[in-house]
Amino acid sequence: MRLSRTRRALLIVANLAAIAFLVLPLLPVVLGALQSEKAIQSDLRSLLPRQPTLANFELILSGGALRGPIFDQVSYLPKSVERFPAAFMNSVAVAASVSLLTLLFGAFSAYTVARLRLAWTRALLSLSVASRLVPLIVLMVPLYVLFRRYGLLNSLTGVVVAEIGFLLPYAVLILVPYFAALPAELEDAARIDGCTRFGAFLRIVLPLATPGLAACATIMFILSWHELLIPLIVVSRPEAMTIPVVLAGLVSDYFVFFTLMMAICLLGLLPTLLLVLLLQKYVVRGLVAGALKG
Amino acid sequence: MRRRLARVRGREPTAGALAVVLNLPSGLCLLLILAWPVLYAGWLSLHDVSLRNLRTGELPFAGLANYARLFGDEIFWLTLRNTCVFVGISVALEVVLALAVALVIDDDRVGLSRVTRVLLLVPWGVPPVVNGLLWAFIFNTQFGYLNRALLALGAIAEPINWLGHPTRAMGAVITAYVWRTTPFNILLYHAGLRGIPRDYYEAAEVDGASAWQRFCHVTLPLLRPIIAVSLILRTTFGFMVFDEIFAITQGGPGNATWVAAWYTYRAAFQPPFNVGLGAASAWVMALVLAVAGIAYARLIGRHVT
After folding, report:
1. Which residue in A has a C-alpha nearest to residue B305's C-alpha?
2. What residue of A is the nearest CA neighbor of B22?
3. Per the omega criterion (within 30 degrees of 0), is the bond before B272 cis?
């Protein structure tokens, strides 16, 4: 197919528009985060910061200790500022645990679905698809009552448990196509050489499915990092808050400190944005596999 | 050698036994954290579950009182209407925008289409609550970047109050949500387009089909299964929207942006903490979604076998 000159020009314009659509809304976050609240309030028409400053980031990363000159006149700072460093570590701990456990349990189940192919394991696939569509809020009402009874409220364990229940079916859906795509001969060869079924799973299937495992682990980490509703309902103690909960605390504050809020937002979105960009190949394949081939 | 193999095999569990053992962890998780809670929500919806009753541990049977209260609540019906508006418009936008972008980046010869493909997942990588806060900033009347840009361009003389007006506020949350979720659809359609053999287009072109005809008679029919999957996924996820509502409007102004998940959240987790009512509204929502879920499972089932 050949492209005429006008069509090519139109396509380039459309493509530039697509790029603008994808990244332009992030610009205000960066521009806001680099200003003082005073500066953003003084000129309501300017788009670029007149006096860029990193003071917002210094304040947040030091947990409120390092107050630059732009905070001289400020008597009240949002609670989110001092809670940020601890919440960051909580988020890392939760996302890492959720990602690891869903990967482990998900791989076990996905293997039985894709390679053992018994009638009932294959039915697990439909079950996973159905569970994936259970609305989270439907789950959270009873989980709140149950967690209250069993003392899991206000603990990171409670957050991890709830997130595993919610994300595990998706992990299975992502992994099944990767396992299903491996040639059966390799496993058969290992079995002839005296490997048990489980041994073949550990030594042959898992190593060959590394791209799928990477995709699954990354996607689980990102979704766990993003999760607001679960920790919002499970946790009310500041020590156990994750990043999204701390950010949610800004909602009642935000008419006061937009610049600080954007700086916290930027720090909160950076980890998963970097993961998405660095591990894009895996994430893209995993998402497509989990939606279409599961 | 053969004897050794036999010994290993002898100890080895059958495929069925292995499958049971390997499915134990996920099975327990799904039973305890997914299946039981969902059924328990149904039980809760038939009982009087207030914060005080939770403290004493006695939950008296209430029959269908929670459902009667739910269906008698004007705000519940408004919420249902808002949810349909939100889902209808956002799903339509997600499909059309994603299709357009996927078609543009499908052609490697378009300048910078590789850049677009790299940046594709940027909005998907943004945490939903951050997405909400960032659009709350953009739409803010005094300091927001939308009014800033419009004022700087001279398009408006006075700042517009985006979030204080019912229709505009709904538009704002839909914009924010669609921005974050469209990339997922682009990804699916992009994968779908890659699966269409180039010869089909060339054959159509030889037969004299215009670009529009090629789109209608080659691209669309072959993408149909993928579009169907994306429609069901986006519809059900649209029903669950929470973070953007929480961060941008908190359901306001008035009740203009109350949607299904927000209604349940407010009923169960905000004063006066009527968990029973929350459970009832959650079950109504689950029922609506179950219909979509069954259709989705059938569709996917056909793909995998």
Report:
1. A293
2. A108
3. yes
- Record: contact A262-B111, CB cut-off 8 A: no
B231 has a pLDDT exceeding 70: yes
Q: Which residues of B touch A244 (CB under 8 A)?
A: 127-130, 243
Nearest CA in chain B to A244: B129
A126 Cβ partners below 8 Å, 6+ apart?
A: B297, B300, B301
Torsion of CA A158, B278, B80, B174, to 10 degrees: -30
Mutate to test the interface with A, among B4, B14, B22 (most CBs of A within 10 A): B22
Nearest Cα of chain A lies from the Cα of B92 at a distance, in angstroms, of 17
**Rounded to an integer, what distance in angstroms lies between the CA atom of residue B228 and that of residue A105?**
30
To the nearest whole Å, the CA of B30 is away from the closest chain A CA by 6
Who among B37, B121, B296 is closest to A133 (CB)? B296
Residues 6+ apart with CB under 8 A from A268: A243, A244, A247, B127, B130
Of B5, B97, B116, the CB nearest to A19: B116
- B131 close to B153: Cβ distance less than 8 angstroms: no
**Which positions in chain A touch B97 (Cβ < 8 Å)?**
21
Cis peptide before B253 (omega within 30 of 0): yes
Closest residue, chain A, to B105 (C-alpha): A15
pLDDT in tens, chain A (294 residues): 566 788 888 889 999 999 999 999 999 999 999 988 888 877 777 788 878 888 889 888 887 777 777 777 777 778 888 899 999 999 999 999 999 999 999 999 999 999 888 888 888 888 888 888 888 999 999 999 999 999 999 999 999 999 999 999 999 999 999 999 998 888 888 888 888 888 989 999 999 999 999 999 999 999 999 999 999 999 999 999 999 999 998 887 655 688 889 999 999 999 999 999 999 999 999 999 988 764
Q: Quick one: pLDDT at residue B1? A: 46
> What gap in Å lies between CA A86 and CA A88, rounded to an integer?
5
Q: What is the DSSP string of A39-58?
A: HHHH-SS--S-SS---HHHH
Q: How many CB pairs under 8 A join A and B?
A: 321
Closest CA of chain A from B158, distance in Å? 11
Strand partners, B61: B47
Global confidence as pTM = 0.93
Question: Rounded to an integer, what distance in angstroms lies between the CA atom of residue B84 and that of residue B78?
Answer: 10
Measure Cα distances from B297 to A78, A293, B288 in Å.
46, 12, 15
A15 closest CB neighbour out of B16, B113, B149: B113
- Give per-residue pLDDT as tens, B138-191: 999 888 899 999 998 888 988 999 999 999 999 999 999 999 999 999 999 999
Closest CA to A95 of A37, A13, A159: A159
User: Quick one: which of B223, B272, B281, B258 has its CA closest to B84?
Assistant: B258
Cα A89 to Cα A62, A93, A96, A156, A273, distances in angstroms: 14, 6, 10, 11, 17
